[in-house]
Design goal:
The protein has 606 residues and is an alpha+beta fold. Among the domains are: 98-229, Dipeptide-binding Protein, Domain 1 (Dipeptide-binding Protein, domain 1, Alpha-Beta Complex); 318-418 and 491-575, Dipeptide-binding Protein, Domain 3 (Dipeptide-binding Protein, domain 3, Roll), CATH 3.10.105.10. The chain contains 16 helices and 20 strands.
Length: 606
């Protein structure tokens, strides 16, 4: 229920919504730029028969029923996870690339290229918890007909862990000292110490196997130059990639060498571009697409679309959190090569590393209003970066659920962060509190930005809002200054979350995981925070058995992160997608793995 003291903000939200609709209309009328698609025409070229489908407003129209059209409004930059951190790139890869195992929606592990899930009980995990041995399926072929063997698994490790590759998934191999091919169909992974949770390397969408024969000359500095390999990777999955257009569309055909039951569809079109509203409309209203991902759209808008009866909204809650990252380094462009570089702690942000300032910024935010008004059934206000499963969720930060503008002002006053010249903007050590706040282009995100800008202005912080095309922002292009990895602004916002066990996710925030020019911005400690207490506690986590003690350490790691204001959690997000009527076999899995995890089982009712 909306509280009475939010009347002014409701009016503000209405004004923002009106502006967003106007901007959307303007964008739809504009011609598509390089690698972009006009918003309301997001799926216009997704498949043949688009006009007929749009005019009928029911089902797939005259589209080929054996062509599956998947619409990701964040266009894929590469079809794979290793040179880009974006979910859309991982998912584009997951249609053809496979890991040894996936995590199902219920949190259980499912063998993919392995014959079984190793455990201590079946002998796959050593009693001392230092090795895990995977038995591989025999007779598996790459999509070109060549043999898949244990050597490809070894190579994948070598490829990602080479420091010059710039692998964005390096944290998945944290603690791994060796990967050995015992024989052609057995792989032994050795860790540097007892490791209770070993299902990180080669498990889930972020750690699939790639072919040594194809990528053998693409290790290290050569990785970024291997255009054909990076855009057309061989796979072992149900479909093979046959064409890839950067920041636009990927096309797949049935993989005749697939090791499972033949896939239903002859062709898969993985279309990118546009916006979340246009993607939802393409499935639920016009029938131009069969599946639309990440529908970060106001709940009432989705409900109205769904009421037409042409498709359904599907959701899954995992650990995803929409949050603001607070840059711990100085992003001033005048610094040149030192811009947003940690530089051994010698390049701190001029005011965001002074804890009372980001603390006041957090206190000023009404998370409940953001969750209720902009996310509805698909979001819950949160104060944690690890919000789930429940036994890992801390209660030490729950005070953030109550907005406290007056308290934020008082905190700044008490710490001599005041407006000394009367221009409405506070200063710290003579530096005005002016922040640049970036995120991807998306209606809900822009409305979130607008609300937070208003709240921050009320406590004396000036905010410049920036938004970038998602294909660029999440693309990982080392030549672009607008990627979230480079973090050339003061704060930025996006969503990620842990797998069923948060160890791998927590490993991304240790000191060694910082992106930098030297590692081609390949790490995942995006906010550049280095905390010795955090690193030491994380090392304890890696050797603590599953149980109450492990749960307590996870909560402590969460609290260090949140209470130092490296990240400001906003909303625990459920993954929201849409399916067209007649699309069968989809098992929504936005929380623990890729939504494409079981695409081999998707079909259409006839």
């Amino acid at each position: 229920m909306i509280r009475k003291n939010h009347k002014t903000l409701h009016l503000f939200i209405g004004l923002v919504a009106t502006l967003a609709m106007l901007l959307s209309a303007c964008t739809a009328a504009a011609p598509a730029g390089s690698g972009e698609t006009a918003s309301d025409g997001a799926a216009d070229t997704a498949a043949s028969g688009g006009e007929e489908a749009a005019s009928s407003g029911a089902g797939i129209g005259d589209r080929d029923p054996k062509t599956l059209v998947i619409l990701y409004w964040q266009a894929a930059s590469l079809p794979g996870p290793y040179l880009s951190g974006g979910t859309k790139d991982q998912d584009a890869g997951a249609i053809t690339l496979e890991p040894l195992a996936n995590v199902a929606p219920d949190g259980t592990f499912v063998p993919k290229l392995a014959t079984e899930i190793p455990t201590v009980e079946n002998g796959g995990i050593s009693e001392d918890l230092t090795t895990i041995t995977w038995k591989l399926k025999e007779g598996v072929k790459w999509s070109d007909g060549s043999d898949f063997t244990a050597d490809d698994v070894v190579f994948t490790w070598e490829y990602c862990t080479d420091p010059d590759t710039g692998c964005t998934q390096l944290s998945r191999f944290e603690g791994v000292t060796n990967v050995e091919a015992v024989d052609d169909y057995t792989v032994k992974v050795t860790f540097d110490k007892p490791t209770p949770f070993m299902y990180t390397a080669f498990v889930t969408v972020g750690s699939p196997i790639i072919s040594r024969a194809q990528f053998g000359d693409c290790v290290g500095a050569a990785a970024q130059t291997c255009n054909e390999q990076n855009t057309l990777p061989l796979g072992t999955g149900p479909y093979k990639i046959v064409d890839f257009k950067v920041n636009d569309v990927a096309t797949y055909e049935r993989n005749e060498n697939y090791h499972g039951e033949p896939a239903y569809f002859d062709k898969v079109v993985f279309k990118g571009g546009g916006d979340a509203v246009g993607a939802a409309r393409a499935v639920l209203e016009t029938g131009e697409a069969d599946y639309a991902w990440n529908l970060q759209v106001e709940p009432d808008v989705l409900a109205e679309m769904e009421s037409g009866g042409n498709g359904a909204i599907i959701t899954h809650f995992g650990g995803n959190v929409e949050r603001i990252l607070v840059n711990q380094t100085n992003p001033d462009p005048d610094l040149g090569d030192l811009r947003s570089e940690y530089d051994n702690g010698e390049n701190p942000h001029p005011f965001l590393t002074f804890k009372p300032i980001p603390q006041a910024m957090s206190m000023a935010i009404d998370r409940n209003l953001i969750a209720e008004q902009l996310y509805g059934f698909a979001g819950q206000a949160t104060c944690n970066v690890i919000p789930a499963p429940d036994y890992y969720a801390s209660t030490a930060n729950d005070s953030c659920l109550t907005q406290d503008l007056e308290g934020a002002k008082a905190l700044l006053d008490e710490n001599d962060v005041v407006d000394s010249d009367g221009d409405g903007i506070r200063e710290y050590n003579g530096v005005p509190l002016k922040v640049r706040y970036q995120t991807s282009t998306n209606s809900v995100r822009q409305k979130t930005q607008a609300l937070i800008k208003q709240w921050w202005s009320e406590i004396g912080i000036d905010t410049e809002l920036l938004n970038h095309d998602a294909g660029v922002y999440f693309g990982g292009d080392p030549n672009s200054n607008d990627t979230y990895q480079k973090f050339f602004t003061d704060v930025e916002m996006y969503t990620t979350g842990p797998s069923i066990d948060p160890q791998q996710h927590l490993s991304e925030w240790i000191c060694d995981q910082m992106p930098s020019k030297e590692n081609l911005w390949g790490g995942n400690n995006i906010f550049r925070g280095c905390n010795a207490e955090y690193d030491e506690l994380y090392q304890q986590l890696t050797s603590t058995p599953i149980g109450p003690e492990r749960e307590d350490i996870v909560k402590q790691l969460n609290d260090i992160n949140v209470q130092n204001y490296y990240q400001i959690p906003l909303v625990h997000r459920g993954s929201v997608s849409a399916t067209i009527n007649g699309l069968e076999g989809v098992e929504m899995n936005g929380g623990w793995d890729t939504e494409m995890w079981n695409i081999a089982e998707w079909s259409r009712s006839e």
